[in-house]
Design a protein that fits this description.
Number of domains: 2
CATH topology of the largest domain: Rossmann fold
CATH architecture of the largest domain: 3-Layer(aba) Sandwich
Number of helices: 12
Radius of gyration: 22 Å
CATH superfamily of the largest domain: NAD(P)-binding Rossmann-like Domain
Bound molecules: 1,4-dihydronicotinamide adenine dinucleotide, the ligand O=CC(=O)O
Mean pLDDT: 84
Structural class: alpha/beta
Low-confidence stretches: 1-23, 32-47
Helix content: 25-40%
Strand order of the largest sheet: 1-2-7-6-5-3-4
Order of helices and strands: EEHHEHEHEHHEHEHHEHEEHEHE
CATH class of the largest domain: Alpha Beta
Largest sheet: 7 strands, mixed
Shape: elongated
Length: about 300
C-alpha cells in the first residue's frame, strides 16, 4: 500500500496497486488497530472486541472478491445494489443504514444513489466516518460537506491509469486510421476495397491536459509511437513519471498547437467546461479531442 495526501486536504488518498476495492482494507485497519500494517489485518487474525462494525456497500464488488470475503468476515455488510436515488434517500430516512461506519461505492453505481452531495450527506447517519470511493475521480462526492462532517474520503488513484491509457491509444488509433469505416462496412456486408486510412501517429503533437497518473501513462505509450508530447497543469505539483522531461506549456499554447488533445483532469468547478467554444476556435482545424476524464470538462457541439 502506498498512501499519499491529495492536493485537496479533505481527501485522503490511499493508493493500492490492485485490486480496486482494497481501499476497504484501510478502513478496516483504522477500525481495528490504526498502527498495524493492513497486511496483518487482511489475514483476519485480529478480532475487535465488541459488536462487529457495520458497513454499507452501494453497488457490487467486482474483481476484489478475496479481499471482500475478508471484509465480510469482519463486518456486517449492508448491500444496496438496486434502486434509484429516491429509493436510496428513503432507505436512509427509514434508518436502514443506521450505525454504519463506512460507505463503499464506485462511479459505476452512481445511478443507484445519485451523487453523494450535501443532501445525501445531511441525511446520512452520524455514525458514517468513511466514504471509500473505488476509483480515482471523486467529483460525485461533495468533499466539502464530508470535511464539515468529519468524514474521511479515500480513493484509488493510479489503479486505472494503465487501462485508461490503453483506451486513449486505442481511440487515437481509431480516429487517425478511421477504424470505424472498415469495421462498420464489413459488418454491413459492404466490403470497401478503397478505405483511406488517413494519417499515422508519428510526429503528431499530443497535448495532455493534466499531469497526473493517467496523463503520465498515456505519455509513456504515445512516446513509443513517435508522438511529441506537450502537457499543461496547474503547476502546483510535479508531473508524474513519464511526463518528466516532456514539454510543459500553458493551456492556450496546448490547445492551439496540438494535433490531438487528451483530457486528464479532475472534474472541479475550475475544470468544468474548460474546452468550450473559445478553445474550439483556437484549435487546429483538424484537431482531435479525446476525453476519458469527465464529460463536464467539455462542451459538446456539432459543427
Ligand atoms: N475513464 C475512466 O475510466 C477513468 C477516468 N478517470 C478520470 O481521469 C481523471 C484524472 O485521473 P488521474 O490521472 O488518475 O488523476 P490524478 O489525480 O493523478 O491527476 C489529475 C491531474 O489533474 C490536474 N488538474 C486539476 N485541475 C487542473 C486544471 N484546472 N488545469 C490543469 N490540470 C489540472 C492535477 O494537477 C493532476 O495533474 C480523474 O479525476 C477521473 O475524472 C480516472 C480513472 C479512470
Ligand atoms: O472513472 C473512473 C475513476 O476512477 O475516476
Amino acid at each position: 500500500m502506498s498512501g499519499m495526501v491529495s492536493d485537496r486536504p479533505e481527501l485522503c488518498s490511499v493508493g493500492f496497486l490492485q485490486p480496486w476495492n482494497r481501499c476497504w482494507v484501510d478502513v478496516i485497519k483504522q477500525i481495528f488497530v490504526p498502527s498495524l500494517p493492513s497486511r496483518l489485518v487482511c489475514t483476519g487474525v485480529l478480532k475487535r472486541p465488541g459488536p462487529r462494525p457495520k458497513v454499507l456497500l452501494v453497488g457490487r464488488i467486482e474483481y476484489a472478491y478475496e479481499d471482500w470475503e475478508k471484509i465480510q468476515s469482519a463486518c456486517d455488510v449492508f448491500e444496496y445494489s438496486s434502486g434509484s436515488r429516491e429509493d436510496f434517500l428513503r432507505e436512509i430516512k427509514a434508518g436502514r443504514f443506521d450505525d454504519c461506519i463506512a460507505i463503499c461505492r464506485s462511479n459505476q453505481y452512481t445511478h443507484l444513489s445519485g451523487n453523494l452531495d450535501a443532501e445525501v450527506l445531511n441525511l446520512l447517519p452520524k455514525s458514517i466516518r468513511y466514504i471509500c470511493n473505488i476509483g480515482s475521480g471523486v467529483n460525485s462526492i461533495c468533499t466539502e460537506s464530508c470535511k464539515r462532517r468529519g468524514i474521511t474520503v479515500s480513493n484509488t488513484p493510479s489503479v486505472a491509469a494503465d487501462g485508461v491509457a490503453e483506451t486513449v491509444i486505442f481511440l487515437i488509433f481509431g480516429v487517425l486510421r478511421r477504424a470505424n469505416v472498415p469495421i462498420s462496412t464489413a459488418r454491413a456486408g459492404e466490403w470497401q476495397h478503397e478505405c483511406p486510412t488517413r494519417i499515422g501517429m508519428r510526429g503528431k503533437v499530443l497535448g495532455l491536459i493534466g499531469s497526473g497518473e493517467t496523463a503520465s501513462a498515456v505519455a509513456e505509450r504515445a512516446v513509443a509511437f513517435g508522438m511529441k508530447i506537450k502537457y499543461c497543469c496547474r503547476g502546483d505539483k510535479p508531473p508524474s513519471n513519464f511526463l518528466k522531461g516532456q514539454e510543459k506549456c500553458c493551456f492556450e499554447e496546448l490547445t492551439q498547437t496540438s494535433d490531438i488533445i487528451s483530457l486528464h483532469v479532475l472534474q472541479t468547478p475550475e475544470t468544468e467546461r474548460m474546452l468550450s467554444t473559445r478553445e474550439f476556435r483556437m484549435m487546429k482545424q483538424d484537431a482531435i479531442i479525446i476525453n476519458t476524464a469527465r464529460g463536464g470538462s467539455l462542451i459538446t457541439m456539432l459543427y
